[in-house]
Design goal:
Elements: E1 6-11, H1 19-33, E2 38-43, H2 49-60, H3 66-90, E3 96-97, H4 100-103, E4 106-110, E5 113-118, H5 121-131, E6 133-137, E7 140-142, E8 148-150, H6 155-167, E9 171-176, E10 196-199, H7 201-206, H8 214-222, E11 227-231, E12 238-240, E13 246-247, E14 257-262, H9 266-275, E15 282-288, H10 292-297, E16 305-306, H11 309-312, E17 318-321, H12 329-338, E18 342-345, H13 348-365, E19 369-370, H14 381-388, E20 393-399, H15 402-412, H16 417-426, H17 435-439, H18 441-454, E21 467-468, E22 483-492, E23 499-508, E24 520-527, E25 532-538, H19 542-561, H20 574-580
Parallel strand pairs: 1-2, 1-9, 2-6, 3-6, 9-11, 10-12, 14-15, 14-17, 15-16, 17-18, 18-19, 21-23
Antiparallel strand pairs: 4-5, 7-8, 10-13, 11-12, 20-22, 20-24, 22-23, 24-25
Helix pairs in contact: 1-3, 2-3, 6-8, 9-19, 12-13, 13-18, 14-18, 15-16
Length: about 575
């Protein structure tokens, strides 16, 4: 993974407060990962944990020995790293925890206020190439004797900057509970504090050090390495290490977006749960479902339950269409977009059948249409297609149906087809009628959307015109040691119009899609220069799909909060790309 495709995020205790905060931090990780960026997350202990552990140390010994104290304090960061990696995994991304020993965070000096010496960049890159997200406990390093030492109060800032420097990462972003640095303490009496858009190293050192550790700033200054301070999920930030200090423009605090959920099934109920942890960003004003009694039994607030989707739309800034099927979903979405209501949908069947008309409605109404969740679940397939389109995509192969992939793996393990489907249903990975999954029709819908994004809207194909190979009644053969069978959706873009088909393929073990396991999705893009780029993530299930929907909602929130400002968006969103085509 190239340095210009890496970001180091530091997420501290002011952000990591409780279980909900782990989910919010996961959204921040997914935000960057879905753009094809490798992410190193450096974490602090959960809020208050370091102070609690220090109190334990002093209770055990009035003057605790530095080495033992450092070893105890390190457990706080290790715990938060493990918990965050688990939350990221639930969202459908691969994440690996690397301990200070594994990343070779070598330090020297005092046991409780050490100085960094070096980091094993190769170990980090190897893990990033394998999984895409690495979580590292900050604040802790390894002394000359292999003992644990800490980097002083706020030392996770320093850990992140040291790692970013070693990797040559394109960005290092310290995520705080504030949107950036201010010219004075916002909580102190006196004139209103003003947000800074950029600040010199020297001016940053004149601040009190409560937001950024001064040791971290000095390390960055010595190496002329700029970095950012920003809030969770926000776009604008304060750039540290600028030639001059400047104030940001006046920014009014944006109210929460009013969200309407159309459907409270597997995906809709997952989205509702995730939005409930972000009341400062979103307010669910209504949720449409057929069975109100069942929804209430699941804990849904009866005050938001509705039956009339058309009546709910005018009350919303954005709707999440999770009804499924073609109608009434297509009509409701088209009318919502036409009246300026932003829309997020994971309904690949409806989108593939009606995308040109939906695009026209969005343009006419000045609304945003987002559908990153429609293909790949947590695997950022459409985002990768958009990012790579300028490189000349000539071929595409994807495992785009998690249900079928799960079934194929179960068959390979010796299950019958009936048994594999029963297990998939039990895990929430298959519908009662899985025929669209097994026939390839579901993958064909997704492939049609991929083609539209790969060609920036220059080509569309009716999913019904895509050749689909039927799933055999007998279990497909697997030849041990030689190949695995996958349902592959593929495009040949070297011809015009592009050729598209879906069918079972025997893949050699070295093929980039051969090791896509169970409900995972993955896609391999072949570029004009012969390189192959692969993205992957969990493609089925409540939380991976809900995570992708929430990522789309957060994109809309950022664009609505600061219209015209997209400082961190290197590429347009897939829906925007299609609309612009």
């Amino acid at each position: 993974m190239r340095s210009d495709e890496l970001i180091v995020l530091k997420i501290g205790g002011s952000v990591l407060r409780d279980r909900d905060s782990l989910t919010r931090a996961t959204h921040e990780v997914y935000r960057w990962r879905r753009r094809g960026v490798g992410v190193v997350v450096v974490v602090s202990a959960l809020e208050g944990e370091t102070d609690r552990l220090m109190s334990e140390a002093r209770a055990a010994h009035a003057e605790p020995e530095a080495g033992a104290c450092a070893a105890l304090l390190a457990t706080g960061e290790l715990r938060s790293a493990a918990l965050l990696a688990l939350a990221i995994g639930r969202a459908g991304l691969r994440a690996e925890v690397l301990t200070p020993h594994q990343v070779g965070m070598r330090v020297t000096g005092s046991g409780l206020d050490a100085e960094p010496v070096r980091v094993d960049a190769l170990a980090l890159r190897t893990a990033l190439d394998a999984v895409g997200v690495v979580v590292v406990p900050g604040f802790v390093g390894i002394g000359e004797r292999g003992d644990l030492r800490t980097l002083g109060r706020g030392g996770s800032d320093l850990s992140a900057i040291v790692i970013a420097h070693a990797l040559g990462a394109a960005r290092c972003r310290l995520v705080k509970d504030v949107p950036g640095l201010f010219d004075r303490d916002p909580n102190s009496p006196g004139p209103r504090a003003r947000l800074l858009s950029r600040i010199t190293f020297d001016d940053a050192l004149r601040l009190d050090g409560g937001i950024i550790q001064h040791k971290a700033v000095r390390f960055a200054r010595q190496r002329a390495m700029g970095f950012e301070v920003a809030g969770l999920h926000t776009g604008p930030s304060t750039r540290i290490g600028a030639p001059a200090t400047r104030l940001a423009g006046e920014q009014a605090e944006a109210p929460p977006l009013r969200v309407g959920l159309l459907g409270l099934g597997t995906v809709g109920s997952g989205v509702l749960a995730l939005l409930g942890a972000m009341p400062d960003r979103f307010r669910v004003v209504g949720a449409v479902c057929r069975d109100h009694r069942a929804a209430e039994a699941r804990g849904v607030d009866p005050r938001i339950l509705r039956r009339d989707a058309e009546g709910l739309v005018p009350e919303c800034d954005v709707i999440v269409e999770a009804l499924g099927g073609l109608e009434p979903a297509a009509t409701i979405v088209r009318r919502a977009l036409g009246r300026g209501v932003h829309t997020v949908s994971a309904n690949k069947r409806m989108l593939a059948a009606h995308l040109p008309a939906l695009r026209a409605s969005a343009t006419a109404g000045g609304a945003m249409l987002r559908f990153g969740a429609a293909v790949g679940g947590a695997a950022p397939v459409l985002e990768a297609a958009e990012a790579l389109a300028d490189g000349g995509i000539i071929g595409f192969q994807g495992v785009l149906n998690g249900t079928t992939n799960f079934v194929l793996d179960s068959l390979r393990a010796g299950s019958t087809l009936e048994g594999a489907l029963a297990l998939a249903r039990a895990r929430g990975l298959a519908e009662a009628d899985p025929s669209r999954d097994l026939s390839g029709a579901d993958a064909a819908d997704k492939l049609a959307l991929v083609l539209g994004v790969c060609t920036r809207g220059a080509e569309f194909i009716d999913p019904r015109d895509i050749e689909c190979e039927p799933f055999p009644l007998a279990a497909p053969a697997h030849r041990p040691g030689r190949a695995v069978v996958r349902q592959i959706a593929e495009l040949d873009l070297t011809v015009s119009p592009a050729r598209a088909r879906v069918g079972l393929r025997e893949l050699h073990a070295a093929h980039p899609l051969a090791d896509v396991l169970a409900e995972e999705n993955a896609a391999a893009f072949t570029l004009r220069d012969g390189t192959v780029r692969v993205v992957r993530g969990t493609g089925a299930g409540r939380w991976p799909t809900a995570e992708a929907v929430v990522a789309d909602l957060l994109d809309i929130w950022r664009d609505s909060a600061a219209p015209g400002e997209r400082p961190e968006r290197a590429h347009r969103h897939p829906a925007e790309a299609v609309a612009a085509g």
